[in-house]
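Workshop exercise sheet. Pairs work together: one partner reads the sequence aloud, the other fills in the structure field after running the prediction. Swap roles for the next sheet.
Pair: D.N. / O.F.
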Amino acid sequence: MSEFQYCPQCATPLQDAHIGGEARKSCPESECGFIHWGNPVPVVAAIVEHEGHIILAHNKTWPPTWFGLITGFLERGETPESGVQREVEEELALTPHEVTFVGHYPFEQMNQIIIAYHVAATGTVVLNEELDEFKHVPPDKLTPWPFGTGYAVADWLQQRNAAGT
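Structure field:
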């Protein structure tokens, strides 16, 4: 994660300062007052259910064996629900029908907050330019991973088992 070096408001080099009990980058210009708070970035994640299976996708930039959920950045003016539907449409060309909140999860390594949903979708999978492969995994064969969106998968599986589905 890159950190600001210059003020995005006045272009003055930022300096280290102790603000709000934390070390933060801030603008030394008294007329400006910019502080880089380093707030987490909101990311939506979709546990996409398609034809009775969960879709795990491979991003072109990942190691060959890594597959994960459909994710994307929440855009200005979107609700998390509309953002996750947009991501399913953009990345898989599927039509989302049911969107159910699973939970929210810190992903501190990337300074993100993941807002995860189960999304039932229909249509034919067509991968966008970010993805190069996908696989259908039966829910009873889905294994959570111990970071990021893997916590959402674990919670969804637990919720699913508790509901007896």
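Discussion prompt: The chain has a mean pLDDT of 94. What would you look at next?
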